[in-house]
Amino acid sequence: MSEEQRKMLVALDISDITEIVIENAGTYAKILDLPIEFLHIENNKSQKQEALTKLTELAKNVNEKYGILPEITIKEGNIYTSISDYANQTRPILVMMGTHGLTGMQKIFGSKALKVIVGSSIPFWIVQDKPKNVELKNIIFPIDFTFESKEKLTIVKYLSHYFKFKVNIVTPNLKDQILRSKIKNNLIHVDKALTERELEYEIIIGADKGDMADAVTKVAESINADIIVITTTKHIAWNDYMFGAPEQRVIPNAAKIPVICVNPRTDLTKFASFR
């Protein structure tokens, strides 16, 4: 991850979930030894000073509690594009952001968090609750037959420098032999990467009928997972929001388990046939 700036970007909307996001950011930025930058999108010029005052106070609190004084950035724009655009420009290690889950009209028109995430080449760490287990010990890592399914290995290897965890690999239970062969090839690649990092792992075949989202959340809840690491749907479109991209059911999971989302790299598309 050498191209990235060594910092954590924290997207804040100054709402009732802000304290939760900040507690997660402060806790893990300290462990990962990362500086913090607060990012707030505000289009109402009359409210910018008020936002700055609130963010300054929050930054002071973070400094007092965690020994990290966050940088503060306030930008105008659309939250669905400006956060990911700024992340792509500044290249932090990761972006921390909160979600209220699927509530009200989001159940029809899709998760706000997902709409923010999909435009970024930077991993997003999405939280719904305060940290339950600071030491990450159990990670959920779904693997399917797609080429991009392996791309989230980079963030797992990065986290393994700071945590000693078990990787619980969830795979779909498919009958198609070609797809099963592709899953096997992906698992060989994952095995090599995790073995090199001396990480314990277990393969869990838990997705009957290919419903990976349901399998991932059920396994995560059953083992009391500390975090779920997923790859988002490639080339996501409006109908994915409307009719349910798999990650749209994982991100706002009922157990409020944090989810790290990694977007597929478009520059690897030409290699997709070599799964």
Specify the CATH architecture of the largest domain. Answer: 3-Layer(aba) Sandwich
Low-confidence parts, pLDDT < 50 over ≥5 residues?
102-110, 235-244, 267-275
Structural class: alpha/beta
Helix content: 25-40%
Question: So, the CATH homologous superfamily of the largest domain?
Answer: HUPs
Distance between the termini: 23 Å
Chain oligomer state: single chain
Count helical runs.
10
Look at the structure and give the mean pLDDT: 86
Tally of extended strands?
10
Number of domains: 2
**Major beta sheet, specifics?**
10 strands, mixed
- Element pattern in H and E: EHEHEHEHHEEHEHEHEHHE
Strand content: 15-25%
Radius of gyration: 18 Å
How are strands sequenced across the largest beta sheet?
3-2-1-4-5-10-9-6-7-8
- The rough form would be described as globular
What's the CATH topology name of the largest domain?
A: Rossmann fold
How would you summarize what this structure contains?
This protein is α/β, with parallel strands linked by helices and about 280 residues long.
Description:
The chain is α/β, with parallel strands linked by helices and 275 residues long. It folds into two domains: 5-98, HUPs (Rossmann fold, 3-Layer(aba) Sandwich), CATH 3.40.50.620; 138-271, HUPs (Rossmann fold, 3-Layer(aba) Sandwich). The chain is 39% helix and 21% strand. It has helices spanning 18-32, 45-66, 79-90, 106-109, 112-117, 153-159, 177-196, 212-222, 238-243, 247-250, and strands at 5-11, 36-41, 71-75, 92-98, 124-127, 138-142, 166-173, 201-208, 227-231, 259-262. Strands 3-2-1-4-5-10-9-6-7-8 form a ten-stranded mixed β-sheet, sandwiched between helices. Strand 1 (5-11), helix 1 and strand 2 form a beta-alpha-beta unit. Helix 1 (18-32) packs across helix 2 (45-66). The model is unreliable at 102-110, 235-244 and 267-275 (pLDDT under 50).
